[in-house]
Specification:
By secondary structure, the chain is mainly alpha-helical. It has one domain. 29% of the residues lie in helices and 7% in strands. A three-stranded antiparallel β-sheet has the order 1-2-3. β1 and β2 form a beta hairpin. The N and C termini lie far apart (137 Å).
């Protein structure tokens, strides 16, 4: 059997390395596409975390507002801890203001607590020092967040108005006229 071995034919001139270049181009193109997709995915994830931060922070703020407005021995006060929002220790029956204590979605950890002069919790904010994607066009309830440079500046603080049914402090009397 003559001719059973195949002879290697040389490539025509000008085609040496074409396959190598095509493979290298494909690798670079795939790498660039994956990099762009990863950046896009990171942005999507950060936007979702921002939305969750707004939701959770507002839920805690509203729970603190409601706790404050609920009459306790005739005067309003903030909770001692966030756990007081799960079951009000000053109420004879089970009274819940939150279903669970949410974690800070930006850090995955605990919130930074904002306390009043007596050490009671009147608000929370994130511990994250990252720069937010959203810096403008907030709904009215979050207008204070516009232009903030860090998530830790997004403060969810209870500032309740006068408590219904609570005695108000009377305005000082005008000085007597002569």
């Amino acid at each position: 059997m003559k001719g059973s071995s195949r002879a290697v034919r040389p490539l025509p001139s000008g085609q040496h390395g074409f396959t190598f270049l095509a493979i290298m181009f494909s690798v670079v193109l795939i790498g660039t596409t994956i990099g762009a997709a990863a950046r896009q995915w990171k942005t999507v994830v950060q936007r979702e975390k921002e939305a969750e931060l707004l939701f959770r922070g507002q839920a805690i703020k509203r729970a603190i507002d409601f706790y404050y407005r609920t009459s306790r021995a005739g005067f309003a006060q903030y909770p001692r801890t966030l756990e007081d929002l799960l079951k009000d220790p000053g109420s004879p029956s089970v009274r819940r203001y939150l279903r669970k204590i949410y974690s800070d979605p930006m850090t995955g950890g605990e919130w930074v607590l904002i306390k009043d002069g007596s050490g009671r919790v009147k608000g929370v904010h994130s511990a994250s020092e990252e720069t937010p994607l959203k810096t403008a066009h907030f709904p009215d309830e979050f207008k204070l967040f516009e232009g903030k440079k860090k998530y830790s500046e997004w403060v969810f603080e209870s500032r309740p108005q006068a408590v219904p049914g609570a005695p108000s402090v009377p305005a000082p009397l005008p000085p007597p006229t002569p």
